[in-house]
């Protein structure tokens, strides 16, 4: 009963902190950390100690999985270089520098144990990134920080395990450390990919969104548990499974499943994040009590924590500064190379289009001659037109993706201003606390080291978390903003073309066969950003021209004949309307009518099927554009959400 009361009070505290944070402008994690610490020091509250395996095996896998599902995979791919530097090189360098410093200032602490402590203090925490996200900094900064937080635990835990082994057994080779790290990553990649793919195929056959959500809750553990048993990183396996789910889910899972799963996962994420920081505060008193009774004392622990925390920031700055310069030089070199081959690339794109039509042979790849030789060898083994056309489309898509990458880097460069935010936002958190508690009981000064780890984590969250808004105001980095008019118009055009292809496939707007019907081109008649009505209190639906399609003049329609009013009553939405000699179908209006009991089923059923075809074609077009990185992740997500909610309405039971 006591445990139940504590759990209920903890959940209520998490909800209260989330509500309070919006009013006072402080992140919920800091409120819970401060509240837990204050409660832990009350005389009638016993000392609390959380099993580290609960955090490492029960809390972190679903948290990292949830973050990986929501991250833009195209942006993650683009930022893989800085993420790798921060998640591997920075963690190893921080562990070494902090380890040497601790070995010098802590009596009786060998270098191996000190490096183990350095590995504990090195990784940042993906949970703490929410503090930076609330400030509205650019998506590039958030992607780099999220990617680092998702992957740096593998490096830190492998270094920790190797250092502990060296301390207890007397020695370990660098080759053994590198081999252990490679094994942990390779196993995690394989297991995570397999679990992600298999789980999506299983979930695609589930008809109930609630059941699908329950199955999704098991995916991070299905990836982490076998990976750990195979000496891999269970947390990285959960991340990989999340990346696969986030990338392929929109193509394989029904919209209702994804919307329900996303909503429920947000609830789980909020609860688990809050519990971590709440328990961190509650544990503080018990650890302070043990250290105060030891020879080293709390004062020395505070001094060591200040030194270690300062070193984490200094080493991070020394790595981030040259990293940004190298990234800038790399982008400039790519841009020059691309400009030199711009005309050849344009001709190459046209040639690929001709190949798909069967009018030309495979051209030279202007930017990668080795790739061209590889493609030619494959084509000799399979010279059919289908194979040639498929590879032409693939290489052409790669060219568009590379051009989009350059536009992405040029539009939002990582300069010293953004670098300052990346350095200061590298806060420590749950992984540091959980990893510290995995130290064996034979470790020298274990309570002292636990207190140092807790002080560094709490101090970085408090100091850096509270001062990060001021740093953002002073440094003025690039901030996240809405898509510009040009991008919105491009997304509209993409959706209009996808819908027009459906209308022009030989059927009229009501689903009947039409011979020679061809869709006309359309001009946008509404802005994507226009405020939209609420749909049953659950989603915002907008009705731009991008979600509509026109039929060629003369296309028959059972709802509009020879100048009839296309809207039966003033209270009912215009499913079909005339624009000159064209007839426009609005899937958003059909979706609302489908839930309106005043409409007859037999009138709506044909247009409902055509509207669903249009929505699914538009989704495929958006996902293809997303794979090539043609538009920002926010624009694509916004459009996909609208399509999802419209399809959910159209696939619901008619009233």
Automatic annotation (TrEMBL):
One of its GO terms (cellular component) is plasma membrane. The keyword Cell membrane applies. It is found in: Cell membrane. GO terms for molecular function: potassium:proton antiporter activity; sodium:proton antiporter activity. Keywords: Cell membrane, Ion transport, Membrane, Sodium, Sodium transport, Transmembrane, Transmembrane helix, Transport. Residues 555-568 have a biased composition (Polar residues). GO terms for biological process: regulation of intracellular pH; sodium ion import across plasma membrane. Residues 549-568 are annotated as: Disordered. InterPro entries: Cation/H_exchanger_CPA1, Cation/H_exchanger_TM. The chain crosses the membrane at residues 27-45, 80-105, 111-129, 174-195, 270-288, 300-324, 448-472. PANTHER family: SODIUM/HYDROGEN EXCHANGER, SODIUM_HYDROGEN EXCHANGER 7. This is Transporter. It comes from Actinomyces naeslundii.
